[in-house]
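notes to self, project folder thing:

trying the whole complex as one job this time. last attempt i did each chain seperately and stitching them together was a nightmare. two parts in total, labels are on each line so i dont mix them up again. if this works i'll redo the older ones the same way
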Amino acid sequence: MLNRLSQKEHETNKIKAVIYGQDYQIKGKASVDHLRLVALLVDHKMKEIGETNPRLDLNRVAVLAAVNVADEYLKLRQEYEELLRLLEQAQQGETD
Amino acid sequence: MLNRLSQKEHETNKIKAVIYGQDYQIKGKASVDHLRLVALLVDHKMKEIGETNPRLDLNRVAVLAAVNVADEYLKLRQEYEELLRLLEQAQQGETD
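result (full assembly):
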């Protein structure tokens, strides 16, 4: 059942995106929609941080955006592992 | 059972961290260990990107690190949602 969770392999895709006013080419083995969402998320975080701290250098805005996303990523990873344990318990219950 | 997943509220903590050679103060309602891990992850990503692309501007290294973490975050979120569906199905099975 857990096999359904494995990431589907995609071909390499490329998109052009504007992040905080700068042009980037983003590529990855994920759908074009996923890559667009990634760019949008970073752009959004940078704008949020830049608006709250208008005197911050561009590179510090970018680092703090990375910190912000990394914070959410690590929290989600903890919840994901917890959920995995619960699912394994539930599946063991089924087979007992 | 899902209540166990809700994030525990912590007091606001602060740490000093060096990310890609620059000093940052990072604060958040998470443990000091979590904040340190966040800083380490961003530092690691920036070094990885900076070493692969030594001519890249500091701010582009930081933006690409944010893009990289956002990519992993969004993929994990998708897997998390899938796992949640599986768990809900397993729990419905228990009560049927």
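what i see at first glance: Residues 11 and 29 of chain B are 5 Å apart (CA to CA).
need to look closer tmrw
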